[in-house]
């Protein structure tokens, strides 16, 4: 048999992707190793982040040089990251499916093309601009009008009542993330709807189903893997988003949200905002602890993927 | 450990990297001697506007030098001056003793003096200059003073009708020289704060219900603007946006027990008191200066520079630029300094800075 | 548009022999209403954001923007525009072949264990915050390899960020092509390489392009990974891949908005405007090229 040149070069090229991730993981693990040893497991479930007295003299603790009073615990970051991204995905999925259906099924191609530009353009806006829009437009609107009304009307629903806060918080961060990830889901979905075998749609229509019913009962089930796949991608994007979250989340430190209006902080935003101060730590433990956060964030992304795959697997078994 | 390994290997790998880079950009092999000397400044976002005012004027007068300015943050500025990536690291905070011990050939050269405002958003009271003290601000930020009509605030402001409303303290979430000098003031005035939280470019803020962390000085202005009953500390360069937003400006209690506004005259008074105390390496806090007129929150803005530069031309251009920047007819001239509401460096501090600049080789 | 939607809502069903039940008609109407609402929410957000950018950028949109380099708080954006193009195109040149190869592998041979492992790792890579990639690039390339702030460090960091997006959209696009097409190709005696390049890729091109444009948009909109790798320069790029920092538009947005001068704010919004509309142009250009090439090829769909 001929040597499969195409196949081998394909595999060689493709392997650069996992290799770059492995390089990143290796780097993060080696780099944060002292912090992992120093912090042990309570790093994950304590709400206690303090770079310590950066102007003091380093002290020895458990065999490591650290700044006095330095403590690293990130439970509040894990909660903030997962909550904001999860809410964003729950809100983004119906919006994205709605937009994709309207553009793919609801109108003629010639009209859909310019309108789909809107949705695609939402993806082209830099995340800093989302952040600016978030704090100039969204935060005052939500904080002064929408949230007080919501908290009043929904006071009986857990996590929706209580103090409506200032507008900077969990729900605002989720809403900005939602708008950011919708185009990612919607664009892929639209292409997939367009590419679905037309015979399937025609068969459904000939049974007397309306276009919407065809979509709901015939097309969407066929696209289940696409929907879940692209949702994971979007969730990953939300988990890793930095600037926009930094600007609207209220950046809570060392406490947990008690309702959806409370300030939170996400791991990616926290790394970005703390890196500069951490660089001032002469023992380097602060930067190492930040890279340990990055490692934990990677592990969360792994967990999200495993769960999504389990869902797919169970759906197939059934 | 990793750091040492990095340094040893980097020299060997440098060659390989350069070779591959040349391969990638064969067309760009230009003789280095003909190109102008380029300097890189990076660091403090508070000093960044001033550098941006300086550089166009300076490079026009000195076409042989190109200066790139970057606003990245004080910690980054210090780190990159140490690593040699940048020639000038701008910082609002001086390097700690522990850092100096590890990197003894790094200089901390003051270029100007900055001031900090304490602002608030109290509907109906923003045209009144409320009187606040270090212990009261510490109480607000650690959650022991929660209401605007608290007795501690009322006692400082007799006759002012304070609202019965929760205070929303706003702090910087990114590492910041503003946080450094604000927490220094709280530490100097309030033993409890000094003991539990201390001072730094980022601190472990106590969890105050409703409290907000904002990103950068514009984030602080924006957050305060949209948050009635909030209080925030903001760099003096943002005086105009703060005034345009009609936010309140506090009078602060100084070491002499007087309440003073952050005016240039009051800052100069404070600087005058502290300048005689400034040591030869110029690493000193100017916060909470003695004197009846002294405004309590001011600081030196530093250029962090390595004594040993890659070559003599770079060192010469660096000395020339830094000497110009602290000159009253150069970078410290009123039209530069007033544009960012800073205070020029006092004469004796200029002399100390010049002595340090001469050490750059 | 309205008539089509009315029709789909079942308003004209009187003429049809088969009339759906009331419940189904209501369900349909409600469904379309929800869909319209979803679209309106997105359009509202879009106009609110774009409106903000356009209004604030409008006063500074003059030719000097493209002719001058950034100088202190003002000047133009010539160096930043050049830098953004260099960094985006560079990262695309690095990332597109690798990402597409990974996507093709996933869709054609991705059923097995290796395929799922690759897919898994690719999805994990999406979750890496850009600041972490930036810091990794800083330690590995800027410090360790001694490249200093440079084009090479920025391009490679961005490319790693783009890989999973390109891989995933390529995979999804290829997987959507009916198997009959592959069978027909092999039946006519085409090799795998031939089949992929001449048949599958052209067929999947629209969806792949969507993914790549999304990736370009992403690369142009990023600040955090570049701050620590590409640095920033007030001057034009001198062609060196290492040792020299380079400017880019997002830096202007990110740091000039942090300055206390109105002039620098306007420059920041001008940069945001240029990025947004630059990407719009890219998308339009991409679609136009696609329509042309498909007409030439004669799409099999």
From TrEMBL, chain A:
Residues 78-308 form the ABC transmembrane type-1 domain. One of its GO terms (cellular component) is plasma membrane. The chain crosses the membrane at residues 74-103, 115-133, 170-189, 293-312. GO terms for molecular function: phosphate transmembrane transporter activity. GO terms for biological process: phosphate ion transport. Keywords: Cell inner membrane, Cell membrane, Membrane, Phosphate transport, Transmembrane, Transmembrane helix, Transport. Pfam families: BPD_transp_1 (PF00528). It is a multi-pass membrane protein. CDD domains: TM_PBP2 (cd06261). It is found in: Cell inner membrane; Cell membrane. Belongs to the binding-protein-dependent transport system permease family. CysTW subfamily. Part of the binding-protein-dependent transport system for phosphate; probably responsible for the translocation of the substrate across the membrane. This is Phosphate transport system permease protein.
Automatic annotation (TrEMBL), chain B:
GO terms for biological process: phosphate ion transmembrane transport. One of its GO terms (cellular component) is ATP-binding cassette (ABC) transporter complex. SUPFAM superfamilies: Periplasmic binding protein-like II. It holds the Pfam family PBP_like_2. GO terms for molecular function: phosphate ion binding. Residues 1-34 form the signal peptide. Keywords: Phosphate transport, Signal, Transport. Residues 33-326 form the PBP domain. InterPro entries: ABC_phos-bd_PstS, PBP_domain, Phosphate-bind_PstS. The keyword Transit peptide does not apply. PANTHER family: PHOSPHATE-BINDING PROTEIN PSTS. The complex is composed of two ATP-binding proteins (PstB), two transmembrane proteins (PstC and PstA) and a solute-binding protein (PstS). Part of the ABC transporter complex PstSACB involved in phosphate import. Belongs to the PstS family. This is Phosphate-binding protein PstS.
TrEMBL record, chain C:
InterPro entries: MetI-like, MetI-like_sf, Phosphate_PstA, Phosphate_transprt_permease. It is found in: Cell inner membrane; Cell membrane. Coiled coil: none annotated. Residues 81-286 form the ABC transmembrane type-1 domain. GO terms for biological process: phosphate ion transmembrane transport. Pfam families: BPD_transp_1 (PF00528). PROSITE patterns: ABC_TM1. One of its GO terms (cellular component) is plasma membrane. Keywords: Cell membrane, Membrane, Phosphate transport, Transmembrane, Transmembrane helix, Transport. One of its GO terms (molecular function) is phosphate transmembrane transporter activity. SUPFAM superfamilies: MetI-like. It is a multi-pass membrane protein. It comes from the Bacteria. The chain crosses the membrane at residues 26-50, 85-106, 118-141, 147-167, 195-217, 266-286. Belongs to the binding-protein-dependent transport system permease family. CysTW subfamily. NCBIfam families: 3a0107s02c. This is Phosphate transport system permease protein PstA. The lineage of its organism: Bacteria, Pseudomonadati, Pseudomonadota, Acidithiobacillia, Acidithiobacillales. The gene is pstA.
């Amino acid at each position: 048999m001929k040597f499969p040149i195409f196949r081998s070069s394909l595999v060689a090229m493709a392997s650069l992707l996992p290799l770059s991730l492995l390089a990143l993981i290796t780097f993060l693990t080696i780099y944060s190793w002292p912090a992992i040893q120093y912090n042990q497991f309570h790093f994950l479930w304590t709400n206690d982040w303090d770079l310590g007295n950066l102007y003091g003299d380093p002290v020895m603790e458990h065999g490591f040089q650290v700044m006095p009073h330095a403590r690293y615990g990130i439970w509040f970051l894990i909660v903030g990251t997962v909550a904001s991204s999860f809410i964003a995905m729950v809100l983004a999925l119906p919006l994205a499916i709605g937009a994709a259906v309207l553009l793919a099924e609801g109108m003629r191609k010639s009209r859909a093309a310019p309108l789909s530009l809107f949705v695609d353009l939402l993806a082209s806006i830099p995340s800093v601009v989302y952040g600016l829009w978030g704090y100039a437009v969204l935060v005052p609107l939500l904080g002064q009008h929408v949230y007080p009304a919501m908290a009043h009307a929904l006071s009986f629903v857990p996590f929706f009542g209580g103090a409506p806060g200032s507008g900077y918080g969990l729900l605002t961060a989720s809403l900005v993330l939602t708008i950011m990830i919708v185009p990612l889901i919607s664009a892929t979905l639209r292409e997939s709807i367009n590419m679905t075998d037309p015979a399937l749609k025609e068969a459904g229509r000939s049974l007397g189903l309306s276009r919407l019913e065809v979509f709901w009962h015939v097309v969407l089930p066929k696209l289940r893997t696409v929907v879940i796949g692209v949702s994971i991608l979007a969730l990953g994007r939300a988990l890793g988003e930095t600037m926009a979250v930094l600007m609207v989340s209220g950046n809570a430190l060392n406490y947990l949200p008690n309702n959806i209006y409370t300030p939170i902080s996400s791991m990616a935003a926290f790394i970005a905002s703390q890196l500069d101060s951490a660089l001032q730590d002469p023992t380097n433990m602060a930067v190492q602890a930040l890279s340990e956060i990055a490692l934990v964030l990677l592990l969360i992304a792994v967990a999200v993927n495993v769960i999504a795959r389990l869902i797919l697997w169970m759906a197939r078994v059934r | 450990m990793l750091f040492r390994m990095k340094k040893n290997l980097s020299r060997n790998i440098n060659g390989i990297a350069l070779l591959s880079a040349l391969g990638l950009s064969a067309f760009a092999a230009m003789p280095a001697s003909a190109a102008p000397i380029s300097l890189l400044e990076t660091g403090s976002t508070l000093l960044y506007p001033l550098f941006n005012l300086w550089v166009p004027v300076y490079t026009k007068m000195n076409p042989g030098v190109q200066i790139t300015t970057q606003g990245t943050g004080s910690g980054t500025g210090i780190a990159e001056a140490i690593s040699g990536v940048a020639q000038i690291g701008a910082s609002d905070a001086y390097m700690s003793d522990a850092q100096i011990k590890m990197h003894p050939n790094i200089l901390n050269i003051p270029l100007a003096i900055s001031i900090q405002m304490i602002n608030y958003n109290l509907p109906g009271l923003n045209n009144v200059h409320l009187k606040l003290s270090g212990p009261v601000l510490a109480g607000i930020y650690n959650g022991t003073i929660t209401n605007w009509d608290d007795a501690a605030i009322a006692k400082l402001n007799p006759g002012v009708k304070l609202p019965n409303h929760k205070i929303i303290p706003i702090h910087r979430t990114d590492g910041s020289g503003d946080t450094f000098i604000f927490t220094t003031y709280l530490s100097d005035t309030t033993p409890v704060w000094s003991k539990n939280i201390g001072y730094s470019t980022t601190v472990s803020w106590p969890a105050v219900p409703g409290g907000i962390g904002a990103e950068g000085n514009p984030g602080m202005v924006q957050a305060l603007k949209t948050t009635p009953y909030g209080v925030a500390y903001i760099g003096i360069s943002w005086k105009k946006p703060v005034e345009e937003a009609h936010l309140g400006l506090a009078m602060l209690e100084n070491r002499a027990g007087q309440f003073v506004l952050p005016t240039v005259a009051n800052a100069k008074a404070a600087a005058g008191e502290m300048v005689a105390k400034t040591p030869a390496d110029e690493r000193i806090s100017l916060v909470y200066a003695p004197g009846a007129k002294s405004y309590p929150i001011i600081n030196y803005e530093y250029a962090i520079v390595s004594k040993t530069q890659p070559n003599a031309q770079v060192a010469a251009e660096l000395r020339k630029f830094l000497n110009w920047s602290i000159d009253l007819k150069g970078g410290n001239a009123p039209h530069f300094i007033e544009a960012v509401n800073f205070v020029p460096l006092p004469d004796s501090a200029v002399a100390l800075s010049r002595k340090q600049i001469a050490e750059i080789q | 548009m309205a008539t089509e939607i009315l029709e789909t809502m079942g308003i004209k069903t009187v003429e049809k022999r088969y009339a759906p039940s009331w419940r189904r008609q209501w369900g349909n109407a409600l469904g379309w209403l929800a869909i319209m609402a979803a679209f309106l929410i997105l359009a509202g957000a879009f106009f609110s954001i774009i409106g903000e950018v356009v209004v604030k950028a409008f006063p500074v949109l003059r030719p000097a923007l493209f002719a001058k380099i950034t100088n202190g708080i003002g000047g133009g954006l010539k160096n930043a525009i050049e830098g953004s193009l260099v960094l985006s195109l560079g990262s695309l040149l690095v990332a597109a072949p690798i990402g597409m190869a990974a996507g093709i592998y996933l869709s054609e041979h991705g059923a097995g264990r290796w395929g799922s492992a690759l897919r898994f790792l690719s999805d994990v890579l999406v979750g890496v915050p850009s600041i972490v990639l930036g810091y990794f690039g800083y330690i590995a390339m800027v410090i360790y390899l001694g490249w200093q702030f440079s084009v090479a460090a920025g391009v490679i960091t961005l490319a790693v960020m783009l890989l999973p997006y390109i891989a995933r959209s390529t995979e999804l696009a290829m997987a959507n092509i009916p198997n009959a097409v592959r069978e027909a190709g092999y039946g006519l005696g085409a090799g795998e390489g031939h089949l992929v390049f001449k048949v599958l890729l052209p067929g999947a091109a629209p969806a792949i392009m969507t993914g790549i444009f999304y990736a370009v948009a992403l690369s142009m909109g990023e600040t955090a990974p570049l701050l620590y790798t590409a640095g920033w320069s007030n001057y034009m790029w001198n062609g060196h891949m290492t040792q020299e920092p380079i400017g880019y538009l997002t830096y202007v947005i990110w740091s000039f908005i942090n300055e206390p001068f109105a002039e620098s704010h306007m420059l920041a919004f001008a940069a945001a405007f240029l990025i947004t509309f630059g990407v719009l142009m890219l998308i339009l250009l991409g679609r136009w090229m696609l329509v042309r090439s498909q007409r030439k090829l004669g799409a099999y769909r």
